[in-house]
From TrEMBL:
<dbReference type="GO" id="GO:1901135">
    <property type="term" value="P:carbohydrate derivative metabolic process"/>
</dbReference>
<protein>
    <submittedName>
        <fullName>Putative SIS domain</fullName>
    </submittedName>
</protein>
<dbReference type="InterPro" id="IPR001347">
    <property type="entry name" value="SIS_dom"/>
</dbReference>
<dbReference type="GO" id="GO:0097367">
    <property type="term" value="F:carbohydrate derivative binding"/>
</dbReference>
<dbReference type="InterPro" id="IPR046348">
    <property type="entry name" value="SIS_dom_sf"/>
</dbReference>
<dbReference type="Pfam" id="PF01380">
    <property type="entry name" value="SIS"/>
</dbReference>
<feature type="domain" description="SIS">
    <location>
        <begin position="36"/>
        <end position="161"/>
    </location>
</feature>
């Protein structure tokens, strides 16, 4: 009986977190994401820090199943090397979970001249949950729910993968 109650709580918690995540994704950005990912030749994933690299690896695993070439890198010196390889038919996804805003803004400036599709997945300071926006624009939405671990990011990646699979 106790395990049944635990299972019900887990299901409710997962459903609640999915609803939180969906509130934060702008439909316009989501449609643009799916379109750009489906048209892109290669996907480059850059995340600074341990948590961002975990999310990036999950994204790479999911999107490789779609038949896309996904390259992930996490060190600052790697970015400058990769920058010369990025073409207009590619897409880059920047991941910022540790709130390295200044550094990622610098990277975004370097990308502006490349005319490449850019997306951002991250967490701002405060009580925020995953966001995914086009062209590195942040969504400043506060929610009372407290961010816990990387679980919401995994849900976001699975959700984006399922959309792109269609």
């Amino acid at each position: 009986m106790e395990s049944l109650i635990l299972l019900e709580n887990l299901i409710e918690d997962t459903q609640s977190k999915n609803e939180i995540m969906l509130k934060l994704i702008e439909e316009e950005a989501l449609g643009d994401f799916v379109e750009k990912i489906s048209k892109s030749n290669r996907i480059f994933v850059y995340g600074k820090g341990v948590s961002s690299s975990i999310v990036g690896q999950e994204l790479k695993r999911a999107f490789t199943k779609l038949g896309k070439y996904v390259f992930d890198f996490y060190k600052a010196d790697e970015f400058d090397s990769v920058l010369s390889l990025i073409r207009e038919d590619d897409c880059i996804i920047l991941i910022d979970i540790e709130n390295s805003k200044d550094y990622l803004n610098l990277i975004n400036e370097k990308l502006r001249g490349k005319n490449v599709s850019r997306f951002f997945i991250g967490l701002d300071k405060g009580k925020k949950v995953p966001i995914c926006t086009y062209d590195f624009n942040r969504i400043d939405k506060n929610y009372d729910e407290i961010y816990k671990g990387l679980e919401l990011y995994s849900m976001l990646i699975r959700f984006l993968y399922e959309l792109c699979k269609l």
